[in-house]
Task: inverse folding
């Protein structure tokens, strides 16, 4: 089994080589405006817009969305 390698720093500017994944788990109340998501929104506006659209149409507890951002991640 592969080991998890933890890195410390700014998650919106990962320092690893190659493609990166920033995973974020949230509640199902549709809020966006506190904590980590503020840093995400400052760096990339697309995930917030995508989340708000997704929340209106598809959110149920346990569902997921995957949002891609281009460039700037590292």
Result:
């Amino acid at each position: 089994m592969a080991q998890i390698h933890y890195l410390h720093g700014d998650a919106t500017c990962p320092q690893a080589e190659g493609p990166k994944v920033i995973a974020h788990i949230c509640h199902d109340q549709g809020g966006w405006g506190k904590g980590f998501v503020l840093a995400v929104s400052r760096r990339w506006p697309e995930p917030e817009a995508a989340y708000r659209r997704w929340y209106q149409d598809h959110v149920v507890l346990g569902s997921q969305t995957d949002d891609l951002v281009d460039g700037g991640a590292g």
